[in-house]
Amino acid sequence: AQSVTQLDSHVSVSEGTPVLLRCNYSSSYSPSLFWYVQHPNKGLQLLLKYTSAATLVKGINGFEAEFKKSETSFHLTKPSAHMSDAAEYFCVVSDSEGGGGTSYGKLTFGQGTILTVHP
Amino acid sequence: DGGITQSPKYLFRKEGQNVTLSCEQNLNHDAMYWYRQDPGQGLRLIYYSQIVNDFQKGDIAEGYSVSREKKESFPLTVTSAQKNPTAFYLCASSMGFRGGEETQYFGPGTRLLVL
Hints:
The complex is a heterodimer.
Chain A: E1 3-6, E2 10-14, E3 19-21, E4 23-26, E5 32-38, E6 44-50, E7 56-58, E8 64-68, E9 73-78, E10 87-94, E11 107-109, E12 113-118
Chain B: E1 4-7, E2 10-13, E3 19-25, E4 31-37, E5 43-51, E6 54-57, E7 64-66, E8 76-78, E9 87-94, E10 105-106, E11 110-114
Parallel strand pairs in B: 2-11
Antiparallel strand pairs in B: 1-3, 3-8, 4-5, 4-9, 5-6, 7-8, 9-10, 9-11
């Protein structure tokens, strides 16, 4: 079984300050991990993904995340927030049973973290 | 443009009525998915299809039906049996497991409201 916990439902920062969105996961297999962003009434856009290569993953718009197996965490960070970063962010885990095979790599979504950026 | 399109953007349903949400992709992806999103909750899987003419129930399939007659299309019907259909519905696609890549890409969504 797999699960995802986003530790904050809301995060508020000032423009130009760092962003930290926290995510912990559990998985029976070697997981793939994703962060998606959703602006109001829009679909989800992939920010970045971890698939057992480098543990520090760089994504779009200056975001990055670090996979820490010992802490079962995959926190999302950005050095300097921009007003356009205000959105909801989802941490997602997929236990694709090591890749390949016939089973479907089911995605499990966290509850989401709403990021507010103040001028 | 390559991508996933969903229509309509807003849909209204009357009591006892079936409605169908459209999802089309031109990414040449094998797998397609339907999710439901409610406020304050993550996405929940309704149905998925890994190949044409085959589909599987997700976690909350009751009151919904799908078809996959073409690779590009995966319509979702919300039947009258779905008692709480008001939600934001998201379609996604991926290369599929044979491609060894499970990253899912999402459409813009359809908001369903009950009159």
